[in-house]
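User: I've been trying to design a sequence by hand for this structure and keep getting stuck. Would you show me what you'd pick, starting by listing the structure so we're on the same page?

Assistant: Good idea, let's start from the same input. This is the structure you sent:
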């Protein structure tokens, strides 16, 4: 075989070898790429990962932090509620509605916060006690009559949606009830809390008369409000009255609660200085025990 023929044979073998290699590579590629799998998404747990059968945290009954910021005042001060216990029956205690005009109501509810912080066993398993010491923190910074109102010069206890009027009455003078019911951020903050959590009973402190009143909105007090008033007053040593009739009250917070179906009472301390803690502690404990299992 001459040189020319040898070169031709070598070229043919090289071409055949290249074709074989190309075929094998194509076959390997096919094997690797088939099937063209896509990654399956991880399944999402229907309970949000909390656990078998558990409800999402936002709808679980009784779950609450130690404190809740309800909102802020006109000047931006926080309005805070403190919670004790995790029971399904919630008793709401409110002070400081009239700020520096009735500072003893804030002192009283702050005393209550301190008491329950130091005595966790005072709250039965089925009870939650929620305390708002200062609904009107802006007014609390002002002494005397000026402290009764918020920074918009509105009487918060004339700003709720029960027979509301823009012009309210306090003793022998007109006071502002706001531009509309719940126009004030403090009143709106309490409304939002009540509508969200629907407390079972409420006690709200004012001053000064030394009496306890059940609540009602355009009608007679409910039997439960009357019972609540009698339970508290009997233990605290205050007299009860069926109705406050010294002058007409519009936009009252406690009466608005009655409109929401919540038995609620107004406790008027004897003066503007003393918190009368011992008396009121007895009243609070009597109410808690009345609704404990």
């Amino acid at each position: 075989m001459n040189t020319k023929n040898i070169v031709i044979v070598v070229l043919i073998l090289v071409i055949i070898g290249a074709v074989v290699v190309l075929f094998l590579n194509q076959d390997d590629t096919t094997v690797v790429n088939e099937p063209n799998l896509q990654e399956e998404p991880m399944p999402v747990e229907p309970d949000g990962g909390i656990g078998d059968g558990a409800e999402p945290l936002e709808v679980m009954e009784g779950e609450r932090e130690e404190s809740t910021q309800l909102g802020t005042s006109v000047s931006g001060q926080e309005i805070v509620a403190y919670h004790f216990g995790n029971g399904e029956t919630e008793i709401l205690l409110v002070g400081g509605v009239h700020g520096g005009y009735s500072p003893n109501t804030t002192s009283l509810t702050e005393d209550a916060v301190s008491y329950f912080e130091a005595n966790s066993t005072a709250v039965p398993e089925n009870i939650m006690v929620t305390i708002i010491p200062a609904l009107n923190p802006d007014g609390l910074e002002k002494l005397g009559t000026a402290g009764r109102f918020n920074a918009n010069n509105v009487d918060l206890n004339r700003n709720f949606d029960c027979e509301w009027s823009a012009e309210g009455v306090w003793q022998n003078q007109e006071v502002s009830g706001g531009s509309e019911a719940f126009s004030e951020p403090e009143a709106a903050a309490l409304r939002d809390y009540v509508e969200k959590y629907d407390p079972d009973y409420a006690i709200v402190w004012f001053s000064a008369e030394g009496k306890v009143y059940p609540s009602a909105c355009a009608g007679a007090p409910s039997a439960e409000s009357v019972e609540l008033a009698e339970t508290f007053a009997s233990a605290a040593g205050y007299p009860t009255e069926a109705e406050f009739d010294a002058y007409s009250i519009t936009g009252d917070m406690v009466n608005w609660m009655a409109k929401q179906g919540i038995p609620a009472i107004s406790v008027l301390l004897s003066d503007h200085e003393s918190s009368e803690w011992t008396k009121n502690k007895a009243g609070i404990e009597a109410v808690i025990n009345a609704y404990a299992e």
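That's my pick for every position. To get oriented when you compare it with your attempt: The mean pLDDT is 84. The chain has one domain: 63-291.
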